[in-house]
Protein 1
Amino acid sequence: MTATHCPYCSLQCAMDVTPATGGGATVTPLDFPTNRGRLCQKGWTSAEVLTAPDRLTTPLVRRDGELVPTDWDTALGLVAATLRRLRAEHGPEAVAVFGGGGLTNEKAYQLGRFARVALATPNIDYNGRFCMSSAAAGGRRAFGLDRGLPFPLTDLDGADAILLIGSNPAETMPPFCTHLAGAQNAGGLVVVDPRRTPTAAMTSEGRGLHLAPLPGTDLVLLLGLTQILWSENLVDHDYLAARVSGVNDLRASLAAWWPERVERVTGVPVATLRRAARLLADASRGRGAYVLTGRGAEQHAHGTDTVTAAINLALSLGLPGRAGSGYGCLTGQGNGQGGREHGLKADQLPGYRSITDPAARAHVAGVWGVDPDDLPGPGKPAVALFESLGTPGGPRAMLIHGANPVVSLPDVLRLTDRLRTLDLLVVSDFVLSETAAMADVVLPVTQWAEETGTMTNLEGRLLLRDRAVTPPDGVRTELEVWSELAERLGSPVSFSADPSVVFGELTRASAGGVADYAGFSHDRLRDGEALYWPCPAPDDPGTPRPFLDRFTTPDGRAVLHPVDETPPDDALTPDMPIYLVTGRVLQHYQSGAQTRRVPALNAVEPRAYVELHPLLARRLGVEEGEQVRIRSRRGACEAAARITEGIRPDTVFMPFHYPDDGAVNRVTNAATDPVSAMPELKVAAVGIERAGGAA
Ligand code: SF4
């Protein structure tokens, strides 16, 4: 039996994994501050993916259009020879790398180093770009630091009010909801979501408020709440004077957002806006209040500004950096936080260092044993990277690790077409995902409980996941893959396949950076210490609450940035008069590559559906369960109608876990935020018809 953590979301619930006789394993929950002995259904069934019937155990190469089994030597030889040829003919930028937000810190770090040293390419990014990039950008410009929650999750327990905007943890991470109970009991849970989600339903019976704004208007809603705080003199003037810059500019920027105008834009009544603002203000002066954002607010072409508006609200109340109060964003993917701290992001080096900073380049190059001048510069963020594939001067080969972009990309038909233009697509995975099925070479790799590595959870806490079961014959770890590929490519330096050696190097590369891991080691984590970054030395206790004394800006003060309304990129038209929003369901995780292979989960939610209000259904002539077609300017998908009063009549919802005709990302918009490069996955203008003919 090995104590470890769940393979899925950033809550990283603690569990024991016990190998089962005859293969596979069982899991049992462990008591841990974040999950308190609970697991959601995804966690309970997570071990089933280890023995998925279609588990890959031999490399595959494409011959005459078909993927056929081969041996590792042949597969790696083919990959290395093709990469060498493409680099010789077109330069190192001909190779691109795309990583996943579930890779361990060791793998995220090593993949970043492999791309920049062994391949010498700037073209690396990761699907965490679709998770936290707007929250990260907003946090950095206000606080100088991006750590999802700059406080332990248990701090939420004592708050009188929590504003949760664009997040549905009752389905995405159910054990998290135990931390909302204090606010519920105080009548102070405020949920902002255009749907009556299970999380929004937690506000019923006097336990809080559910605000259901028009999709794409979260920013205006936040401007309105902040304006009420200022106009009713509910802000914390002492805190603002002591710890915050930009107060006058913010105040002036709010003047036009009187509540009646906000009601007109968002559809949320003035009285509800005032109740929410006062509730938060009362709590901030009582036991405490928190403002938390999620992807619903962030995955927009103006997501960074929406996050900034949420931070402005929190700063006006004096919450960030105060014991018992705060601002944070809820990371989605298991290691969305650690992945961007250690080099998967196009513009970052380990330790959350900028790849354009000469001192950062010199430090990291020193650890890596290369000349700083040999390190490439910043690459392209995910959407731009995919758009560049196969274009003149663009990448002609791509290596994908731990991601399934053929389901998860926005405007997925157009961007998937770019993959078809490549000379070489190499996918490492443990099952034949939709993306692996398109590859020229598929490398079967270990997963989660079969390898040792660390994860950084949504609180910035380091967790060790020790190897708990023996991997099947024929698979390799990705660290082993990169080690051998680097050698075959003639890399100037070697790449260790030992996760503890890689982690040691990571800690040295991060030393002195914003995300300083220098004080961490596998042994320290194995001892069970609760360690949060930054942690600059082996005897340093780590930093659970980094903002208590000062923010990470040059003068230690948080910065208010005025922002203003920006409508969704898609305008509603007579032909496309309905807003589509997307999200997750209880049973599935991200692209569904894992959870769609768990029979108990797939039996409950086996295919795509679309939620629509009875009024809309009646107008369209659509019956419950009927197949409908959802189309946007990008493409169309199909789903079974699910009629519910828990959604606005002008809005429909679809989960994004499904491939092929049920892939909602055929419809979503790849327009990106100018600061974070986050695509607008959360709102699109659509038209809907009965699949059998026009409604
Ligand atoms: Fe916990 Fe998330 Fe795993 Fe569910 S999916 S058990 S909430 S870590």
Protein 2
Amino acid sequence: MEENNQGSGNFVDRFEFHDYYLTEEFLTEEHKLIRATVREWVKKNVTPIIEDYAQNAKFPVHLVKEMGEMGLFGPTVSQKYGGQGLDYISYGIMMQEVERGDSGIRSTASVQGSLVMYPIYAFGSEEQKMKYLPKLASGEWLGCFGLTEPNFGSNPAGMTTNIKDMGDHYLLNGSKMWISNAPYSQMAVIWAKDDQGIIRGVILETGMEGYTQPEIHHKWSLRASSTGELVFDNVKVPKQNILPGVKGLKGPLSCLNNARYGIAWGALGVALDCYDTALRYAKERIQFDRPIAGFQLTQKKLAEMITEITKAQLLTWRLGVLKNEDRATPAQISMAKRNNIEIALNIAREARQILGGMGITGEYSIMRHMMNLESVVTYEGTHDIHLLITGMDITGINAFNG
Ligand code: TGC
Ligand code: FAD
């Protein structure tokens, strides 16, 4: 059997795309070009190194600049601010290809594009847009997004981080928890309550007095992504750093719509990578004098995987069309995020079994993907929160606090 040796420097990425229902026919030539370019970059620059970074719990910070050059940050932002003005299917395809390499690298792109650039683009002043968006799009700066707090995860409305109006500036106090990119970021979009208890977005820059970004260690998941806390101890925030265009929880939640949409595509990338690995392995691995792909039980696993992938491809493509037409509802996005992560997790677990003992090693991507998905199923709204969003949408009754 040919070994993969992932992360050893001589890893050959043998990934092949699977498209059982010919969904490729929905794509434009531009979409296909984007897909090929990002896939090539992932094969050359991500998959050969990512296992070592994950095993060593290191963030491959050198990829940030490359991702900027590849246009992976905020591709739907207009060219005036350093983006590319692309459509949402293009964005989805990018996230699919990047997460096929590693969920942590897709996390970096999601946070930068959907959670940091988007709120500045949608709710920022012209000065804020000109100052921050080009630097973020190019990867010169890395940003992070602070919504979750130690005592308020699924229920961000309860946040206690606050800004106090001091006349010519605000004083920011509180803390944020589980913040992707935090330790490496040069700036942050933070959500905090004002004197009236209304949630506002503020922009912080690293180096402001009283602002620290300690790293969270010992994660078993997203080990190639850096996660931290954000601590605010009487941070003096200039008044021009507030996002003028939005007030209330709908500000941060509308950013999540874009990120959750990208994750739905990204999880599909993970599912495709696990299926592709398991299919190839099953055809090559001989037991009882025949390829294990010839056993009915293996075929059941593989057939169910491609069925779920195909359904998710159709769901995701349709959601992309609705997003392009500005008709995708938050509840539709929740359904896709929840479904695609669930099928990706199931596929990763089944694929791991097909590889037997080899499945638990870093020679193959499956175990790393599986562990990464344990974060993806929790962040950006947990699996159960998304179920309750669907429940509320179809019944009209809120079950979150009832
Ligand atoms: P609720 O009363 O339902 O809503 C408050 C206001 O917000 C509006 N709204 C939305 N607007 C835009 N998009 C959405 N998805 C929205 N959902 C709600 C809503 O219309 C209302 O507006 P208005 O004008 O009436 O004030 O709020 P609630 O407090 O009952 O909470 C609802 C709930 C539970 C669904 C929400 O809190 C939620 O989604 N919780 C999950 C929290 C979450 O997802 N956190 C993610 C943190 S960021 C992260 O994880 C990044 S990981 C990144 C990475 O590494 O990839
Ligand atoms: P809790 O809210 O305490 O939930 C615990 C359990 O209770 C879950 O199973 C949940 O589904 C369940 N539960 C809660 N409420 C209900 C209810 N009403 N009904 C039924 N069940 C319920 N946040 C950011 O702001 N920015 C980031 O960049 C970011 N990056 C992250 C990176 C990683 C690696 C991780 C793990 C998290 C990240 N998060 C980030 C935080 C993430 O969004 C939260 O972990 C998530 O929203 C869940 O919050 P919690 O962990 O506090 O869990």
